[in-house]
Design brief:
Length: 190
């Protein structure tokens, strides 16, 4: 079992992915590691951060990667928005994390019962700002299927979009998709 330390730079995306997988296994078993961020950790984190992974996920209050991946303050760089969309702001944040913080793993994590996807499927009228989100979700909705299939399609579309980013390619970052089940707590890798 590998535990990330605040001063540790993890340069292998496979190691970073394994840390997340092991963390989710602990979460599922209810065997979380005691992760109190102590004074010495905070001292280090005030000076620098060395997260080992970037996670683009939904802003849904039930989706908290720090918890379901059993990580602590400073371990993961999280970008959250409704529908885990890879718009310019999210891509800029991803670029920052891989260019300046040297993260080698990017995870796009969707989840069951996603309200943004449900809204996109409804065909309802929305405010201009919500329409911005819905436009990013349209390709997945147009593929069709059950809600969970559309959610997974959206993760795959966003994953592929991130893979085409010039900074992501230049830095050699690995991009993977994931799907968090709110009921079971399990993260499935796509």
């Amino acid at each position: 079992m590998k535990i990330h330390q605040p001063t540790e730079l993890i340069e292998d995306a496979n190691v970073a992915l394994q840390i997340l997988k092991e963390g989710n296994e602990r979460f599922l078993k209810g065997e979380l590691i005691h992760k109190v961020t102590n004074n010495s950790d905070r001292e280090v984190l005030c000076r620098e951060q060395k997260p080992f992974a970037v996670i683009l996920t939904c802003s849904d209050s039930r989706v908290a990667p720090e918890i379901f991946f059993d990580q602590k303050l400073g371990d993961i760089f999280i970008i959250r928005n409704a529908g885990n969309i890879a718009d310019k702001t999210a891509l800029g944040s991803i670029e920052f994390a891989i260019e300046y913080l040297k993260c080698k793993l990017i995870v796009v994590c969707g989840h069951t019962r996603c309200g943004a996807i449900t809204a996109a499927c409804s065909g309802a009228e929305f405010t201009p700002n919500i329409k911005h989100i819905i436009e990013y979700l349209k390709p997945a909705v147009e593929k069709g299927g059950y809600l969970d299939e559309i959610i997974c399609s959206n993760v795959q579309i966003m994953t592929e979009q991130i893979k085409t980013d010039i900074i992501v390619r230049h830095q050699g970052a690995r991009v993977v998709g994931a799907y968090f089940d709110l009921h079971s707590g399990e993260v499935k890798w796509l």
